[in-house]
Request: fold
Amino acid sequence: MSGEVLCFLLVSLTAVLAILLIYQQFVFTKGIRRELKQAAEKLEKILRTDSDEKLTVFTDHKELMALAAQVNGLLLDRQRMKAEYRRQKLASKKMLANISHDIKTPLTVILGYLEMMRLEQGEGAADATLEKVEAKAKQVAELINQFFTLEKLEAGEMKLAKERLEIGELCRENVLGFYDVLSQKDYEVELSIPEEKIFVRGDRNAIERILSNLLSNAIRYGGDGKYLGVALRKEKGAVRIDVTDKGRGIREEAASHVFDRLYTGEDSRNREIQGNGLGLTIARNLARQMGGDITLSSQPGVRTVFSVTMELWDN
Reply:
């Protein structure tokens, strides 16, 4: 065999070996990419559904198996943190409920004595002081009642009626309930309520509580704009009520927390408009128990809209 032929064969063999190595690397890379994609999809599903299952990977690649083991370790830590969070949240709620219950009874007695003293004192400086003390005691009593209400709602212990209610009239009545304060503060009031009767399925007391909370919040926090708007309309088989103000608004980073219990935002530092951070939480819980919801849309300095949706009575 000549040297040229031998050289040609060696070059050819080298080329074939190179092609085989490239092909093997391609197959290996393609295989691990496919397995990585499958593992990523499984992990994304576990995280999206908030599942407690582990990441199971069927592979011969040791590196991928090691990665899956590390991921499962993180998922296990996540489960433990979730369990601890639930435990602490339950303990906190139980503690607040116990404190509220322990305070409610003596506070009721104090309110009774304060009322008796005020009636006996007659008019004067002492009577004015007693009225202020009584007013503060009533605020504490109302806060405790709100805690009890929220606990019942979150525990599913508050049963709401499913009545046929004319929502337009309910909206007008609740706005009328704020007539004096709106007149005193020279508010512009704009009502957009159809003349036709629109019926919803819900609990009268719950709906009135929701409307009262949203209206009072619009007046309290939207005072800079001197505007209150209430609009009612049907929307995709439901009923929607928009309560609008043109005050300072709610910044984006705070908007996601306004329905959290005890969240009061920056305005909580202003005593004139201070809230207790439970009203909106209770309102949304009531709306959801009736098959609806409350959402928020705010452009600071332009307008803030709280929207309530409820089930339409369609039969």
In short: Strands lie at 163-166, 188-192, 199-202, 227-235, 238-245, 293-299, 303-312.
